[in-house]
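Support request, priority: normal
Reporter: lab tech (M.K.)
Component: structure prediction queue

Hi team, I submitted a job for DUF6788 domain-containing protein from Urbifossiella limnaea yesterday, and the status page still shows it as pending. I've pasted the exact input below so you can check whether something in the sequence is tripping the parser. The sequence length should be 103 residues. Please let me know if I need to resubmit or if it's stuck on your end.
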Amino acid sequence: MGIVVSKRINKTQEPLPKTLPGVVCAQRVRCGKPRCRCAHGQRHLAFYRFWREGGRLRKRYVRRADLASVGAACEARLRERQALAEGWQQWRKLVAGVREVSR
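Reply from support: The job had stalled in the queue. We restarted it manually and it finished. Here are the results:
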């Protein structure tokens, strides 16, 4: 008899990619319940990820449980893009140097 190992797959949640475009921001919002404190003044604190896609600003709610992982993924994407921009800047300097020497 073999041992059967079952893998639990959560079909409702997709795994987060290692990097995400955008930034996570906090906003004060109303929940919509008529007897809630936010209906009469102080609003709730909610977190959203903002990014641009196809020239449009997009917004997606971020659960508090996912806040750290989504924020880290956005920061990782920002670091990757900064490193890429620095690489291209170095490349342009090298090309300019080669052109100077070849003249």
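Residues 23-98 form one domain. The first helix runs from residue 67 to 102. Let us know if anything else looks off. Ticket resolved.
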